[in-house]
Each structure stands twice: as structure tokens, then as C-alpha cells.
User: What shape does this take?
Amino acid sequence: MAQIDAFFKLMNDEGASDLHMVAEQQPLLRIRGDMERVKFKKMGNEELRAMLYEICPEEKIKIFEETGDIDFGYEIPGLARYRCNFFQQKYGVGAVFREIPSEIMTCEQLGLPKVIARLAHLPKGLVLVTGPTGSGKSTTLAAIVDEANKNRKDHIITIEDPIEFVHRSQKCIINHREVGTHTKSFSAALRGALREDPDIIMVGELRDLETITMAMEAAMTGHLVFGTLHTINAMKTVDRIIEIFPASQQGQVRSTLADALKAVISQTLFKRIDIKGRCAALEILIATPAVRNLIRDSKTFQIISTMQTGKKFGMQTLDDAIMEFIEKKMISPDDAYSNAVEKSKFLKYLRKPPSDFTEV
Assistant: This one.
């Protein structure tokens, strides 16, 4: 048993999402969004480095010492998996660990709208799950892949850096590939995947032009592709994909994206005030013919109004999702206001003026 496993056990017991360990500081846990110090001594750089290296693969240690940061996965059987990030900082080594539960929650257990589970049954196309870091994108994506795994008879390939949720093959056969371990890059893995007879491809992150190009190509050639982006809403997601391409190619990309895109799920995580835990407010864009036309005609600014009138297709805006949480008294008015798009809708719920002076 590695020495650091005791911290992972504490992390699990406390319901923490992240563990932070930095040289010359006490360890910290992120619990329900807040950082809380662990009652433990401050560790020196060499002491912490020895503890961290105990769980780090040898080849990753070499990369870390050459580059100053690495990502990898670590698992404690019967407890959980952890996404590990080591980095060098002014006072020595640092590390952040994200807990990934061993048990994959279903769409129903997560309380996701029914349209989300239906996305797992699409024959082809591109489905994007977006949101800021730590908003639960991986959890939502895992639930969708789990839905496909239980109900389809297909081949699923996941490409991640590192592997997070581990799916056991059920009706589907699932192959997990890790960037840096099983393949050189996301784009290389995607290029290879097209020759590996997949039906569904899950890409952990669409982080560059080549990966986005390959993902759209896969979606256009009859595959169902799921991917994540660090964007804050559906409209920004469409713009981000188009803007990553050179201006001379953007017209063609708009047309390709309009044909390939099936849905965008953008989520924001909130701390609950009624019970311990957190909940995700989802903005859902379904690529109806009207949405496709807006993308082709470079009128993405009109997507928000299409979502407001497209509830019968399963669409909803972030503000609608937040309003539902407010009315159910699940989240605080301050959190609702600070994350809302049209903040004026939520002013009436505040007991005092907004704390963010830039919004006044």
C-alpha cells in the first residue's frame, strides 16, 4: 500500500472531488467546491516528491523531470480511480488528484433530462459535452457511454488523457486508449480508430485543429463521436470550433459542422443548499434543421432564441435550468445570479446587491 493511499481514503470518506498536495504546505481537499485544509504536517519538497513518485510509473517520472508536468491515472481497487497531475512550482513539486468513482452512474441516477440518454442511441454524428474544468463533463459523458454499452451491440473506442472512467464491456465491446501510453496523440488515435471498425468513438478532449478535423470527419463517415470542449455555452461551442480554423476555411467548416453536429450539452456545476452535494445545470442544444441553417449562415447569435422555442425537441437554456433549481430551492440565489447569462432575471431573488461590481 502506497503512503499516499491514506489521503485518497480520507478524500473518499469526506466526499472530496480533489486532493491538492504542494511542497511546504498542508494538503487540501476540495469539498463541495470549497478548499479545506487537512490536519497534517507541511511536507518538504523531497519528502513530498518521494511520496508522489511511489505511485508514478517510471516512464512518467522521466517525462515529469524533463518537462515539469505530467498526467496519468492511478487506481485503488475497490475504492476509486484518480486522475493525477504533477507539476513543478516555485517552492518545489505539486500535485492535484481528481477522484473518479469506480461505479459509473446512469443518466437516471444523475437526474439528467431524458433527451441525454437518447443521444447514446444516435446512429452517427457529433455530440459535444462542454463546460469549465470541474463541471462534471466526464461524469455526464460516462453515463451516455454506459447507456450505449447496455443497450447497443457495437464497438466503442475511448481516447483519453489519462483514462478516467473504466467501462466493462456489456452488450458492446469497449476498448480504452490512453494518450501517451497507447497512442501518441488524440489525432493519431482518431486516425487509427477509423481503421478499427468502431461504431462509437469517445474523445476525451478536442483540444486542437487536427483533432477537431478528425472528429468531424469520423462523424461525417457514419460514426457516432462524443467529445468535450472547455466552452461555457452552446453558442460559444459552435463559434470556438469554427474559429480554430483559418479564415479561408471557415465557410466550408460551417457547412461540415452543420451536417455533422447532433447536439451540444453545456453544463455548470452548483453547490446544493438543500442537501450535501452538487448538481449540474445543463444547457441543451439539439441540431434541428433550423439550428443547422443558423450555423451555415453564420448566425450563431440566434441559437439562444432557437433553444428557447425548442423545448419540444428537448432543448433548454442554461438560465431555464438555473431557474428550475432556484424554484426548487436547490441552489443559492447568489450562485444562480453569478452563473446566469441574463442576470436581470435573477436580481429579484437576491437579498443584497450583487457582489460582482463588474455586473452592476
Notes: The two ends are 53 Å apart (CA to CA).
